[in-house]
Write a structure and sequence with these properties.
The structure is a single chain. The chain is α/β, with parallel strands linked by helices. It has one domain: Rossmann fold (3-Layer(aba) Sandwich), CATH 3.40.50.150. It contains eleven helices and seven strands. The chain has a seven-stranded mixed β-sheet, with helices on both faces. β1, α4 and β2 form a beta-alpha-beta unit.
Length: 256
Protein backbone atom coordinates (compact mmCIF):
# COMPACT_ATOMS: atom_id res chain seq x y z
CA UNK A 1 0.00 0.00 0.00
CA UNK A 2 1.41 3.42 -0.97
CA UNK A 3 1.62 5.80 1.95
CA UNK A 4 -0.19 9.05 1.07
CA UNK A 5 1.85 12.21 1.48
CA UNK A 6 1.16 14.83 4.14
CA UNK A 7 0.17 17.26 1.38
CA UNK A 8 -2.24 14.79 -0.23
CA UNK A 9 -3.92 14.23 3.09
CA UNK A 10 -4.17 17.95 3.82
CA UNK A 11 -5.81 18.58 0.44
CA UNK A 12 -8.16 15.61 0.64
CA UNK A 13 -10.75 17.49 2.72
CA UNK A 14 -11.72 19.85 -0.08
CA UNK A 15 -13.70 17.21 -1.95
CA UNK A 16 -15.49 16.12 1.24
CA UNK A 17 -16.27 19.50 2.81
CA UNK A 18 -20.05 18.95 3.02
CA UNK A 19 -19.56 15.51 4.62
CA UNK A 20 -17.08 17.03 7.06
CA UNK A 21 -19.45 19.86 8.02
CA UNK A 22 -22.44 17.57 8.52
CA UNK A 23 -20.82 14.82 10.56
CA UNK A 24 -17.70 15.97 12.41
CA UNK A 25 -18.06 16.49 16.16
CA UNK A 26 -18.22 19.92 17.73
CA UNK A 27 -16.47 20.99 20.97
CA UNK A 28 -17.84 21.27 24.51
CA UNK A 29 -18.35 24.59 26.36
CA UNK A 30 -15.78 23.39 28.90
CA UNK A 31 -13.07 23.79 26.24
CA UNK A 32 -13.68 27.51 25.91
CA UNK A 33 -14.04 27.86 29.68
CA UNK A 34 -10.57 26.29 29.98
CA UNK A 35 -9.06 28.67 27.42
CA UNK A 36 -10.39 31.64 29.37
CA UNK A 37 -9.19 30.17 32.66
CA UNK A 38 -5.67 29.42 31.39
CA UNK A 39 -5.26 32.86 29.83
CA UNK A 40 -7.14 34.82 32.50
CA UNK A 41 -9.00 36.75 29.86
CA UNK A 42 -12.47 36.44 28.30
CA UNK A 43 -13.17 35.48 24.73
CA UNK A 44 -16.00 38.03 24.66
CA UNK A 45 -14.75 41.06 22.78
CA UNK A 46 -11.40 39.44 21.94
CA UNK A 47 -9.95 39.55 18.44
CA UNK A 48 -9.48 35.89 17.42
CA UNK A 49 -7.81 34.51 14.32
CA UNK A 50 -8.99 30.92 13.80
CA UNK A 51 -6.45 29.23 11.51
CA UNK A 52 -7.24 26.17 9.44
CA UNK A 53 -10.88 26.98 10.11
CA UNK A 54 -12.21 24.34 7.74
CA UNK A 55 -16.00 24.49 7.60
CA UNK A 56 -16.12 26.74 10.66
CA UNK A 57 -17.11 24.36 13.45
CA UNK A 58 -14.81 26.02 16.01
CA UNK A 59 -15.06 29.45 14.40
CA UNK A 60 -18.82 29.58 14.95
CA UNK A 61 -18.44 28.53 18.59
CA UNK A 62 -15.86 31.24 19.19
CA UNK A 63 -18.27 33.74 17.65
CA UNK A 64 -21.01 32.49 19.97
CA UNK A 65 -18.72 33.18 22.93
CA UNK A 66 -18.65 36.82 21.88
CA UNK A 67 -15.30 36.87 20.08
CA UNK A 68 -14.58 38.98 17.01
CA UNK A 69 -13.36 36.15 14.78
CA UNK A 70 -11.49 36.07 11.49
CA UNK A 71 -11.22 32.65 9.85
CA UNK A 72 -8.14 31.64 7.84
CA UNK A 73 -8.49 28.60 5.56
CA UNK A 74 -6.24 27.34 2.73
CA UNK A 75 -8.59 24.89 0.99
CA UNK A 76 -10.94 25.80 -1.87
CA UNK A 77 -13.65 23.31 -0.94
CA UNK A 78 -13.54 23.96 2.78
CA UNK A 79 -13.60 27.74 2.30
CA UNK A 80 -16.56 27.46 -0.08
CA UNK A 81 -18.48 25.34 2.44
CA UNK A 82 -17.62 27.85 5.18
CA UNK A 83 -18.99 30.74 3.13
CA UNK A 84 -22.22 28.86 2.39
CA UNK A 85 -22.93 28.04 6.02
CA UNK A 86 -21.25 30.91 7.94
CA UNK A 87 -22.08 33.96 5.82
CA UNK A 88 -21.78 36.36 8.75
CA UNK A 89 -18.19 35.44 9.65
CA UNK A 90 -15.26 36.87 7.64
CA UNK A 91 -12.86 34.37 6.07
CA UNK A 92 -9.61 34.87 4.17
CA UNK A 93 -7.54 32.37 2.23
CA UNK A 94 -4.19 31.47 3.74
CA UNK A 95 -2.42 29.10 6.09
CA UNK A 96 -0.57 29.18 9.37
CA UNK A 97 2.87 29.18 7.79
CA UNK A 98 2.28 32.66 6.30
CA UNK A 99 -0.71 34.31 7.93
CA UNK A 100 -2.43 37.02 5.84
CA UNK A 101 -2.94 39.04 9.01
CA UNK A 102 -1.33 42.20 10.35
CA UNK A 103 1.39 42.11 13.01
CA UNK A 104 0.21 42.46 16.63
CA UNK A 105 -3.46 42.37 15.63
CA UNK A 106 -4.90 39.37 17.52
CA UNK A 107 -5.66 38.57 21.14
CA UNK A 108 -5.94 34.85 20.41
CA UNK A 109 -4.80 32.60 17.60
CA UNK A 110 -6.65 29.29 17.59
CA UNK A 111 -6.10 26.04 15.75
CA UNK A 112 -8.85 23.42 15.99
CA UNK A 113 -7.68 20.11 14.53
CA UNK A 114 -5.25 22.04 12.34
CA UNK A 115 -1.81 22.71 13.86
CA UNK A 116 -0.47 19.34 12.66
CA UNK A 117 -0.98 20.50 9.05
CA UNK A 118 1.50 23.36 9.55
CA UNK A 119 5.29 23.53 9.71
CA UNK A 120 5.91 24.67 13.32
CA UNK A 121 9.24 26.20 12.32
CA UNK A 122 7.15 28.69 10.35
CA UNK A 123 3.75 28.68 12.05
CA UNK A 124 5.07 29.29 15.58
CA UNK A 125 6.97 32.49 14.61
CA UNK A 126 3.95 33.59 12.57
CA UNK A 127 1.66 33.17 15.58
CA UNK A 128 4.05 35.23 17.71
CA UNK A 129 4.16 37.92 15.03
CA UNK A 130 0.38 38.25 14.83
CA UNK A 131 -0.38 38.05 18.56
CA UNK A 132 -0.56 41.19 20.62
CA UNK A 133 1.37 41.38 23.91
CA UNK A 134 -0.65 39.43 26.45
CA UNK A 135 -2.30 37.35 23.73
CA UNK A 136 -2.35 33.56 23.53
CA UNK A 137 -1.98 30.68 21.10
CA UNK A 138 -4.54 27.91 21.68
CA UNK A 139 -4.35 24.55 19.92
CA UNK A 140 -6.72 21.64 20.36
CA UNK A 141 -7.71 18.26 18.98
CA UNK A 142 -10.67 15.96 19.54
CA UNK A 143 -8.83 12.69 20.24
CA UNK A 144 -10.12 9.16 20.65
CA UNK A 145 -9.66 7.74 24.18
CA UNK A 146 -8.40 4.18 24.01
CA UNK A 147 -9.74 3.32 27.46
CA UNK A 148 -13.20 3.08 25.87
CA UNK A 149 -13.33 -0.55 24.66
CA UNK A 150 -15.33 -0.11 21.45
CA UNK A 151 -13.20 2.86 20.39
CA UNK A 152 -10.03 0.86 21.05
CA UNK A 153 -11.33 -2.09 18.99
CA UNK A 154 -12.29 0.19 16.10
CA UNK A 155 -8.92 1.93 16.24
CA UNK A 156 -7.16 -1.42 15.85
CA UNK A 157 -9.33 -2.30 12.84
CA UNK A 158 -8.59 1.04 11.16
CA UNK A 159 -4.87 0.66 11.82
CA UNK A 160 -4.82 -2.81 10.29
CA UNK A 161 -6.54 -1.58 7.12
CA UNK A 162 -5.33 1.99 6.66
CA UNK A 163 -2.75 2.98 9.25
CA UNK A 164 -2.93 4.92 12.48
CA UNK A 165 -6.39 6.13 13.49
CA UNK A 166 -6.50 9.86 12.57
CA UNK A 167 -7.71 11.09 15.97
CA UNK A 168 -4.92 9.17 17.68
CA UNK A 169 -2.30 10.31 15.18
CA UNK A 170 -3.30 13.97 15.37
CA UNK A 171 -2.95 13.97 19.14
CA UNK A 172 0.51 12.45 18.99
CA UNK A 173 2.00 14.40 16.10
CA UNK A 174 0.30 17.72 16.64
CA UNK A 175 0.83 18.03 20.37
CA UNK A 176 4.43 16.82 20.19
CA UNK A 177 5.25 19.34 17.48
CA UNK A 178 3.75 22.16 19.52
CA UNK A 179 5.44 21.18 22.77
CA UNK A 180 8.78 21.05 20.91
CA UNK A 181 8.40 24.78 20.19
CA UNK A 182 11.14 25.79 17.71
CA UNK A 183 11.06 29.42 18.87
CA UNK A 184 11.74 28.72 22.53
CA UNK A 185 9.23 31.45 23.36
CA UNK A 186 6.05 29.42 23.87
CA UNK A 187 5.31 27.80 27.20
CA UNK A 188 2.26 25.57 26.84
CA UNK A 189 -0.14 24.46 29.54
CA UNK A 190 -1.94 21.25 28.64
CA UNK A 191 -5.48 20.30 29.61
CA UNK A 192 -7.57 17.23 28.71
CA UNK A 193 -11.35 17.61 28.57
CA UNK A 194 -13.56 14.55 28.13
CA UNK A 195 -16.97 14.78 26.53
CA UNK A 196 -19.28 12.65 24.40
CA UNK A 197 -22.15 12.76 21.95
CA UNK A 198 -24.85 10.21 21.08
CA UNK A 199 -25.42 9.85 17.34
CA UNK A 200 -26.71 7.32 14.78
CA UNK A 201 -24.21 4.76 13.54
CA UNK A 202 -24.41 6.21 10.03
CA UNK A 203 -23.37 9.63 11.34
CA UNK A 204 -20.45 8.05 13.17
CA UNK A 205 -19.35 6.24 10.02
CA UNK A 206 -19.65 9.42 7.95
CA UNK A 207 -17.58 11.19 10.59
CA UNK A 208 -14.69 8.74 10.52
CA UNK A 209 -14.98 8.50 6.75
CA UNK A 210 -14.33 12.24 6.52
CA UNK A 211 -10.82 11.83 7.96
CA UNK A 212 -7.93 12.20 5.57
CA UNK A 213 -6.71 8.64 6.04
CA UNK A 214 -9.96 7.39 4.47
CA UNK A 215 -10.29 10.10 1.86
CA UNK A 216 -6.88 9.53 0.30
CA UNK A 217 -7.50 5.80 -0.15
CA UNK A 218 -10.52 6.46 -2.36
CA UNK A 219 -14.22 5.64 -2.09
CA UNK A 220 -13.97 1.96 -2.98
CA UNK A 221 -11.64 1.02 -0.14
CA UNK A 222 -13.38 3.30 2.36
CA UNK A 223 -16.90 2.16 1.44
CA UNK A 224 -15.97 -1.50 1.83
CA UNK A 225 -14.41 -0.91 5.23
CA UNK A 226 -17.29 1.24 6.50
CA UNK A 227 -19.86 -1.36 5.41
CA UNK A 228 -18.03 -4.02 7.43
CA UNK A 229 -17.72 -1.60 10.32
CA UNK A 230 -21.46 -0.94 10.34
CA UNK A 231 -22.23 -4.61 10.89
CA UNK A 232 -19.72 -4.84 13.72
CA UNK A 233 -21.11 -1.74 15.39
CA UNK A 234 -24.68 -3.00 15.11
CA UNK A 235 -23.61 -6.05 17.12
CA UNK A 236 -22.43 -3.72 19.90
CA UNK A 237 -25.14 -1.05 19.50
CA UNK A 238 -28.28 -2.89 18.31
CA UNK A 239 -30.42 0.25 18.71
CA UNK A 240 -28.26 1.94 16.06
CA UNK A 241 -27.03 4.72 18.38
CA UNK A 242 -23.38 5.05 19.41
CA UNK A 243 -21.87 7.23 22.08
CA UNK A 244 -18.70 8.76 20.68
CA UNK A 245 -16.32 9.74 23.47
CA UNK A 246 -13.61 12.35 22.99
CA UNK A 247 -10.72 13.75 24.95
CA UNK A 248 -10.07 17.30 23.79
CA UNK A 249 -6.31 17.76 24.01
CA UNK A 250 -5.83 21.48 24.64
CA UNK A 251 -2.54 23.39 24.60
CA UNK A 252 -2.49 27.07 25.56
CA UNK A 253 0.57 29.36 25.44
CA UNK A 254 0.15 32.97 26.60
CA UNK A 255 2.60 35.53 25.25
CA UNK A 256 4.42 38.10 27.33
Amino acid sequence: MTTPSHTDRARSFNAAAAQYAANRPSYPPALFDAIEELTDRPLTGARVVDVGAGTGIATALLRQRGADVLAVEPGDGMAAQFRRTRPGIPIVRGNGNALPVATASADFITYAQAWHWTDPARSAPEALRVLRPGGALALWWNTTPLDVPWHAAQTRRIARRFGIHPAVEQNGSGARAALADPTGRLTFTRRKIRWSRRIPIDTHLANIGSHSIFLVHGPEASTAFLAEEKQLLLDTFPDGIVEETYDVDLLVAPTS
